[in-house]
Amino acid sequence: MLKTLIDSRPLLWLVLAIPGLAVLGLWAAGVYTYGAAVSESGEWAARLLILTLAVTPLRLIFRRGPWLIWLVRRRRDLGVATFCYAAGHTVAYLIRKADFGLIIEEGLDLWLLAGWIAFAVLIALALTSTDQAVRAMRRWWKRLHRLVYIAAALVFVHWVLSAFDPTSAYVHLGIIAALEAIRVVLEARQRVT
Fewest C-beta in 10 Å: which of 91, 110, 163, 192? Predict the structure, then answer.
């Protein structure tokens, strides 16, 4: 019974949706300002992106274990959830601005341009995150999905440059940088042996 519950994808998606529903509810209730809702949705997208990218370093460090197998099998879900939070972040921004000219004008600023490019990459990754896409694209699927590292870099450029206080962005950036450094070292070590 517990194993069935843990392996339940609907339950996983319910858990992944809780922060977004909380942000939406607090915004709708007037507890969160527009800025807080946009900031929180973007931070949750970045957190889920970190978790998604952490799967490979964790797999390289720990090799196996039931929790790791579960995490590897749910990596695509985490990546799609990352996209969903990024989409919510973007939609909130677009609703507030509601002026195509202003959106284009602001979109040329580095902080927003980085966000738009990262979002475009996440769209491509989300659209190809199906079993059918994996089969159809074969080796190109993995090459395309390596663009997640570029998206991650752009996400953190966007976050650092747009935040009133970028401390949280720098902390998260440090976490992802450490994880990626571990991944690179361990993958290089495996190639040598």
Answer: 192
